[in-house]
Design a protein that fits this description.
By secondary structure, this protein is mostly beta strands. Among the domains are: 2-66, no CATH class; 71-265; 521-637, no CATH class. The protein is 3% helix and 52% strand. The strands form 8 sheets. The protein has a 16-stranded mixed sheet with strand order 9-10-12-14-17-20-23-26-28-32-35-42-45-48-51-54, with no helix packed on it. Strand 39 (388-389) and strand 40 form a beta hairpin.
């Protein structure tokens, strides 16, 4: 007895120290106590009685004390199913549960009340078996080293319409595979909802007829979930009718012919933790798809998509890493998205898109760690008047031209914060495109694109952040505004915008004005409006034309004040620039200097690898590219030997599809 008492004391003392929950087990039941309650315990009756938070126990009646909640309730509520190569056996001690075993096919029925929970522990190995659970109650499925292949239908089918918790027992690896060419909806199916939780084991699963995992209601992966490897599916990897929610665990998806995660019937997606790794090859398929909203606040998501587009019933379906039909909000997490197929996209929403949490417009407050997005496309345009091969190698015709894009929204795009890197490499492949308005409040926005880096169907507003835009085949920043007001408004931020040679521009507007009220701007392009339509409350200058060298550092100075230095990623034989920055003032003489040495001091901002922009630099210059007197808030200057102006409005950069 003394030894038992000492063991109990040690266990309970450990629980208090570690702030764990303690479960005191007696017979077929247990009682849970928090660490604070355990602290209220004492012994009496010469150590034979233990009182915890007012409840007295005979020490001899305590079977065990554990720190993990017993998953199985009382033994009468637990069904044990063990599979072997010769059949299945069922052990059950509950009058409300009946079962039937036909070789290796097991059916368990429960007639208990709906809030009751029946636990089924599945183990063993069988190449021609199945499990079906039906009744009116909730269930817990414990996969405890299960290797189950069905030759007739689903491997596991839960028909209750209630909650099913799936536990992947710690330290176990489980395998599920269903029959090919069957009538089942999925390899692992429920008519209710799935919740993966309370076990750190592994599940390997393949869907040979349709989906790998499917729920008629929601599917949730909790923080305490293990690893789910979906290695193949004829349709979706995970298909749910209502919503998909992930808070933890690891989900690996490959070998599926349709979508990775699909919520239909206006279902939504919420991801707040966990790890998703996905490789897709199907034409027109989606990595994460929702008919309603998508909200991502944390987690590590990697999606590689090599599929292209295809036409079905006259509709073109695009290959997209993340796609939905309503608003999309991404405020946290690390997203690495790659689309290599023709017309492929990384993020595409039919609604509004919000990236990052708003803090302020001061670039010094930019949060580049909470949200990190890396998007890359390498595919060409798809469609136009040329025939394309789509799904199942069927020749498809498209009446439209589908461009590869990294981030696209039919509605407004608002970027509040984060590190957002986009890279494209083919004609028409834009970086961030809003078919409506684009607003940047803060963050590091790094764009290295073939086509427009930033493109809007209406207006662009930049209030803060570090914005690096380098286009090798079109404009850097392009607002397709049709009104007479401000097409592009710059209130703050640090902006490097370099387009390609004429007729493209660093900053392009179709109509209206470029309004400059603050911030730092260096634009470069082979052409700029002969007298750009600029309205400025902060001193701004237009300099053209001069030869821009990618190996040279250019410094804007007014009087004795050096405002900023830039280093371009490429050369431009005929270049036009818009320049502005805090420190330019009316009535002073301003200069654009060049030199071969990088600044030795100053606040530096880089592209994906190289410093490109320095504020308040300490730098040595060797030549004057241009000088002018800033007689008003907006002035023009020509370089030494250069010509003022440079043709009409810049071309290209219209809205893509």
């Amino acid at each position: 007895m003394k030894k038992i008492v000492l063991i109990i004391v040690a266990l309970l003392t450990f629980a208090v120290a570690e702030a764990q929950t303690v479960y005191v087990c007696q017979g077929n039941s247990y009682t849970a106590y928090s660490a604070s309650e355990v602290g209220k315990m004492y012994y009496s009756n010469s150590g034979q009685t233990l009182t915890i938070s007012g409840t007295a126990y005979n020490v001899s009646d305590i079977d065990s004390i554990v720190f993990v909640r017993p998953s199985f309730g009382s033994q009468g509520d637990t069904v044990y199913v063990d599979y072997t190569s010769s059949g299945a056996t069922v052990t059950c001690n509950n009058d409300s549960v009946t079962y039937d075993v036909d070789g290796s096919d097991v059916v368990v029925l429960s007639n208990t009340y709906k809030y009751h929970v029946i636990t089924v522990i599945l183990s063993g190995e069988c190449s021609n078996g199945s499990f079906l659970f039906d009744g009116s109650c909730q269930t817990v499925l414990v996969l405890n080293g299960l290797n189950l292949t069905s030759t007739t239908g689903a491997a596991i089918d839960v028909e209750t319409g209630k909650k099913t918790t799936v536990i992947l027992a710690d330290g176990t690896t489980n395998y599920l595979s269903d029959a090919a060419d069957g009538s089942q909806k999925a390899c692992l199916y429920t008519k209710g909802n799935f919740k993966f939780a309370d076990g750190t084991g592994t599940l390997n699963i393949v869907g040979n007829t349709k989906h790998a995992i499917s729920s008629k209601e929601e599917t949730e992966i909790k923080k305490s979930a293990g690893t789910i490897n979906i290695t193949g599916a004829v349709k979706d990897a995970i298909h749910c009718k209502e919503y998909f929610q992930m808070k933890g665990g690891t989900l690996n998806i490959s070998g599926v012919e349709d979508d990775g995660i699909d919520t239909d019937d206006y279902g939504y997606v919420e991801i707040s933790g966990g790890t998703i790794n996905m490789t897709l090859t199907g034409d027109g398929t989606k990595g994460i798809k929702a008919d309603s909203t998508i909200t991502i606040t944390d987690g590590d998501i990697t999606i590689n998509h090599s599929g292209t587009c295809y036409v079905e019933d006259g509709d073109t379906s695009k290959a997209v890493c993340i796609k939905n039909k309503d608003d999309m909000t991404i405020t946290g997490g690390t997203l690495t998205l790659t689309a290599t197929g023709n017309g492929g996209k990384c993020i595409n929403t039919s609604g509004n898109l919000t990236l990052g949490e708003y803090t302020s417009t001061d670039v010094a407050d930019a949060d580049t760690e909470t949200l990190v997005i890396n998007c890359k496309t390498s595919g060409s345009s798809w469609g136009s008047s040329t025939a394309q091969f789509g799904r199942n190698n069927e020749r498809n015709e498209s009446t439209g031209d589908v461009k590869a894009k990294t981030i696209r929204a039919e509605g407004d795009i608002v970027i509040n914060n984060g590190y957002i890197y986009c890279k494209t490499s083919t004609d028409g492949s834009e970086g961030i495109e809003s078919k409506s308005a684009l607003t940047i409040n803060n963050g590091y926005i790094i764009q290295e694109c073939y086509d427009d880096c930033l493109n809007s169907g209406t207006t662009i507003t930049i209030n803060g952040g570090w914005i690096y835009c380098y286009s090798t085949g079109n404009d850097a920043i392009d607002a397709n505004y049709s009104g007479t007001g401000n097409a592009i408004t710059i209130n703050g931020g640090i902006i490097f915008a370099m387009g390609t040679s004429s007729p493209e521009e660093g900053i392009d507007i179709d109509n209206g004005y470029i309004a400059i009220n603050g911030g730092y701007v260096f634009s470069a392009g082979g052409q700029q409006m002969s007298y750009p339509s600029i309205t400025a409350t902060q001193a701004t200058a237009y300099v053209g034309s001069y030869s821009l060298s990618g190996s040279t550092y250019y410094t804007l100075a007014c009087g004795d004040t050096k405002i900023f230095t830039v280093k371009a990623p490429a050369s431009m034989s005929q270049n036009y620039s818009i320049l502005t920055g805090s420190g330019m003032s009316i009535g002073t003489t301003c200069y654009l200097y060049s030199g071969s040495n990088a600044p030795t001091a100053g606040t530096a901002y880089s592209d994906n690898s190289t410093d490109r922009f320095w504020i308040n630099p300490t730098v040595t210059t060797s030549a004057t590219v241009s000088s002018w007197t800033q007689n008003s808030t907006y002035s023009q200057s020509t370089s030494s030997g250069g010509n003022q102006g440079g043709g009409g409005p810049g071309g290209g950069g219209g809205p893509g599809r």
